[in-house]
C-alpha cells in the first residue's frame, strides 16, 4: 500500500446506530461524514456516506490510495442466529463435543440457566471412523467411504459450509486435511474449513467451537465482502479493501472472507489501536479507553503504551464485562482479541420503569431504526440521547452540523410520560437516566481496571465515540480519575484509528512439548513452516523488501497439568529458552499471584505475528479537521445534578487554547459533544486534543 503525496486514506466504521466515514489527506487533514446505519444492508450505508463525502469535497475516488473498514457483520450474524447452515465432520465418539462444552455459566446460582444452543444441530454433526493418538501415530485409518456418504447427506440437506475437526489433528493433520479435500471435491462451492488451518492446538472443544463459528459466518462474510467490493467499484475506488481484525491489525478482505473469526471485535479494536498510537504520540503510556456509541459502551486498558490481547473470546452471548471473569454465555473463539469490556449502554439505550416503579436503562437499544425519539424516525421509547438533550448537553436543534434534526418536543413528551410512571419531574427523570447509564458504564471501566488489581485513578481516560465525551467527566469522577483526553474527531475515532493500523497476520502452529525436552533447533524447526507462510502472505500484499517485514515469535506456555496458558515472546539469541522459562515464572506471578519454579513447563503452541512495515508513518504529526462547520459561540442552559441549572458557554474546539477554561462549558463538534462539568477545566494541546483536568477543591 504505497501512498502518493496528495493521496487520501479512507476509514469506515459501522456501528449499531451510525456509520462513520473518515477521509485523511496525506498532510493529516481529516474530513468526515456520519450517517445512520442501514441494518438491512450495512454496505448501503457505506456507499451513501462515502459518495456524499466525496461529492462534498469534490475529491476523485481515484485519489483514494487505501480503504480500511471495521464491521460488526460477523458478530451480528451470530447474535441474530442468521449464519449459514453448517455440517460438522468429526472423529467417531466426538459428535456431542459442542453440547458438552465446558462447565461454565455466567449466572452461577441460576438453576434455570441454559447454555446457548449449538450453532449446528445434532443431525448435521457426522462421525467418521478415524483416530490419531496424542503422539501423532495413526490408531485407526480414515474411512473415506464414510466421507462419501456424509457429503451426499450434506448435499441433500442443503448444507452451506462444512467444519472438519478430528481429535488430535494438531499433532498429525493428515486425516483432517484428506477429509477436507474429499469433502471440497464432493461439494463444489461449499466452503470447507479444517480446524488445523485455524487452530492447530490442544483443546478439542475450543478448537471445534472456533472452527464451527468460522464456518457459520464464513458464507455471510464472503457475501458481504463481495457486495462491498462491488459498491467500491461503483464508486470508482480502486484501492484494496482492508478490514480491521480483533487483534489490532488490518488484513485484505479476501483473507478475512476465508477466516472471518479474525474480525469478531473489528470495530472496538480500531478505537483501541488508535488510542494506543495516540498515547505514543503524546507520551501517555497508561490510558483507559472509554468508547460510548449508540448501542454499547466499551472500555480497554493500555499500560506502558501497549494493550493486552486475550487468547480467547466469547461471541453471541451479548455484551461482556471483560473476558476473564464471566464465561459461558456465548461461543468460545480462540483468536487473539484485544481485551475489551462491553456493556449494553449507549446513546440509544432505552429507559423504562420496572415493576417496583424505578428507572431501568438498557440493555435494549433503539439502534438506528427507529432510533431515539428525538431523531423523529418513529421511536417512541425515551433513550439516553433524549435525556441528554433535555439536560441541555446536546444542541436542541440538530446534530452533525445540522444534518440530523432533533425533535426536542417529542423527547420531552416521552420523558414526561416516563417521569409520571416513576414519580419524578422531567428533569429528574432525564438526570436519573444519565446517572444510571454512568453506573452501568462504570462496570465496564472496573472490568478492565479494579477487577484486575489496577487503580483507575492512576490512568488517563481517552473518551471517544459519539457519546463518550458527553459522559466522560461524570464517569471519571465516579472512577476517581483526574484527566481526560478527547482526540480530534472523537465521535468517529474508530474510523480514524484503523488508518493507523499495520497489515498483520497471526499464525498458530502446533508445538505440544515440555520445555525441558526442547532445544532451540527443535523450536526453530517448528516455527519454520509458519515463517514461510507468513513471508508468502506479506510478499503477496506488496511487502517484498525484508526491511518492510516484521516477524515476532510467541509461545503459549503453562505448568504441566494446568488448563490456561500464558502467551510470551520468544527471546532472540543465546540462552533464549532459559530466558523464556524465567519470563514465564515472572508472568505467572504477575497474573496469578504465585509462581512454582520447581514445576515443569509445557509448550502448548507457538504463534507468529507477521506485520507489514509501511513506507510512510501511519499516523500524522498532528490532526486537524478540514472543511468544518464550526458552531457559533453561544450560551445554553444545562443541568448538572446537585449544582442545578447553569447558563453554560457553548463553543467550538478551536476556541480552546493551552490556557484551560473552567467548566461548566460545552464544546460542540460535528461528531460529538464534550460536556465539561463544574469543577473541571478544558484546554487544547499541540496534537489538537481537548485535555480535561479535574481542578483542586
Helix content: 25-40%
Structural class, by secondary structure, is alpha+beta
Q: What composes the largest sheet?
A: 9 strands, mixed
Label the overall shape: globular
Instruction: Compute the average pLDDT.
Output: 88
Low-confidence stretches: 1-6, 319-325
Helix count?
Answer: 16
Question: What does this entry show, briefly?
Answer:
With 697 residues, the protein is α+β, with helices and mostly antiparallel strands. The strands form 10 sheets. Strands 13, 14, 15, 20, 25, 26, 34, 37 and 38 form a 9-stranded mixed β-sheet that branches. Strands 12-11-4-1-2-3-31 form a 7-stranded mixed β-sheet. Strands 6-5-9-10 form a 4-stranded parallel β-sheet, sandwiched between helices.
Topology, element by element:
Blueprint: E1 8-14, E2 18-25, E3 29-36, H1 42-57, E4 64-70, H2 73-79, E5 86-91, H3 97-100, E6 125-128, E7 131-132, E8 138-140, H4 144-157, E9 161-165, H5 174-186, E10 192-194, H6 195-198, H7 204-235, E11 241-244, E12 250-252, H8 253-258, H9 266-282, E13 287-292, E14 297-303, E15 306-307, E16 309-310, E17 313-315, E18 331-333, E19 337-338, E20 341-343, E21 349-353, E22 359-365, H10 384-390, E23 398-399, E24 404-405, H11 408-422, H12 426-448, E25 460-464, H13 468-479, E26 483-486, H14 493-497, E27 504-510, H15 520-540, E28 549-559, E29 566-569, H16 576-592, E30 601-612, E31 624-625, E32 634-639, E33 645-651, E34 661-662, E35 665-668, E36 673-676, E37 680-684, E38 690-694
Parallel strand pairs: 1-4, 3-31, 4-11, 5-6, 5-9, 9-10, 13-25, 25-26, 33-35
Antiparallel strand pairs: 1-2, 2-3, 7-8, 11-12, 13-14, 14-15, 14-20, 16-19, 17-18, 21-22, 23-24, 26-38, 27-30, 28-29, 28-30, 32-33, 34-37, 35-36, 37-38
